[in-house]
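Quick one: structure for this chain?
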Amino acid sequence: MIGKRLNDRYKILKLIGGGGMADVYLAHDIILDRDVAVKVLKDQFSQDHDFIRRFRREAESASSLAHPNVVNIYDVGEEDRLYYIVMEYVEGPTLKQYIQEQDGLKVDIAVSIMASLSSAIAHAHENRIIHRDIKPHNILIGPDGTPKITDFGIARAISEATITHTNSILGSVHYLSPEQARGGHVTYKSDIYSLGIVLYEMLAGEVPFNGDTAVSIAIKHLQAPLPSIRENKPHIPQSVENAIIKATAKDPFYRYATALDMSEDLSTVLSPSRVNESKYLVDQLSDGHTQAVPVVSEEKEEPEEETMIAGTPLVNAKASNDAAPPKKAGWKKWLTASIIVLALLFGSIYFAFTWLPQWLHVDEVLIPDNLVGMEYEEASQELTDLALRVEIEEFNDEEAPEGTVISHTPREGTTVKVDTLVTLRVSLGAEQVPMEDVTGMSLQEAENALAEFDSIEVQTRVDDSVDDETVLEQSPDPLDPVIPGETTVRLIVSEQPAMTMRNLRGLTRQDVLGYIAEESLLRGDFEEEYSDNVQEGTVISQEPDWGTEVDEITTVRVVFSLGPEPEPETEPEAASETELDSAEEEEDSLPAVANVPFTVNVPEDNNGQVHHIRIAVADSTTDDPVVVVDKEISDSEVFEIAMTLEDEDDIGYIYLYQDDEENAESPFEFTYDYVKSKEENNG
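Got it. Here's what it folds into:
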């Protein structure tokens, strides 16, 4: 490859990188005189036509992005089965290399880089493009420290070509979102999760989850809590760790709503007003859902009121008084007092062990551990049977079926008093949105607009009334309520009809023009040359040759005969001046005058539609074109057009207007010799 010129424009200078999909070369754009990076697909991908189509479409879509933190795509091309993308050349290391060199970045630098990256991802999301493979390896650091993201949309092209369009697990497993790890629906929030992991790595110098296999790492993304970055690096502000926690929530519902929200939050995490920010807590529920948990208030709860037995202090006081009678009371009084005290004492003990527990006892129950995933009606009944009160909170959830319990408060296993209020959070199912209308869009535009849908199935139908790959029909219909992550969209797109080249040899120019006009895929390119074997004015050769199948717009090169090449003129015997003048006058007096046949073609499937035709002629007798035919036709028709050419150098022109628009091939040229030949035929 070194030294090769792609399409006579990009000179390959050296290999600067590569991976499993492509090799990356430094090249020089000869036309614009600038260095560029050229990513060339490897051979195993070049043989897959479906992959090539998707690869080109995704690359062309990504080329529409214009952001200072996105690597620009300049060109997408192919030469000799080498498929390549021409990109902006960023002279500098990848973010992965930069992190390894620095052994983790300073907080302010990492936050600044991530604010720029999340802004770039927000721009891509606004253009309906999900990156799907955000990792430090796909981020370049320019000489001035500017980070730039590359490889937009390429992950999706690989996905479609290798494991079909199902949004399955892609990318490096260290940066994979939980929904990607479980093979679920990939959304814009999947990119936000990957950004959070990259921010963690920039600060910690290592990824949060490691393992011996890709599966073990993916399981950690699904189940393991994110390690606290402040345990080993306490100098990192809590506000910065909060940004990481919020971006990497297991449940997308609790992540930043958009990448722009993340960028705006990062712009203030180092401000003095957020120095004492509390830790953002998330509670990983047993069913895998994530629930935001408020920070516990520092205010102490008021103690419960004590329950007292009426009259007990009085009894104790009286007993105390009666227990110490004056000695002068006598033994009878002492005995009476003792009996009363003992009676009261035994009565108090009996009351304490018999009636007091019934007065003070409040029944307690255990919150069941099987409520999550249960139907609301069933869960509510189970709690009611335990003498608990129930309230319901409903919200959309992409994972939980409609009507099932997602979480509850208090948590399972909690001991509570009877009549405690239990809040059940119940799924409304994934949120339904109106189906977008993509009819009339190109296939590329439609696929970008439907990026969040589960899958897209494409069928083709021959239709030459619209551009190739235009969406003709869609299912579901526009405005139908749909859940993107659970919906397969079926598109019918246009395909130009294939046709087989007919044999043009021996046909006249008018015949060829009529044939090309009837075929929407053909364009004409005419030449002339002498021939001893082919009649003047008829076709000698054609390219593509007859019998060739044509399924895209093609220019047909047709060579017409000028007849035999004239013999070299012999030097005549000297003639008198009078004879020469007479001969010249005789030659000048022989204009070519004939009715030239001119065919106006109407397609066979015209269905009786009437077309307004005007034909104008310009020859030696007119200064400007003169309309000679003005009529309406519904079928092909041949017109005899009178034409006069005074001199061999004169050329006649016929102008054709169909429905007030000039024909694309108009004007049609006619030479003196051609008109002369028609004159002889007419004679």
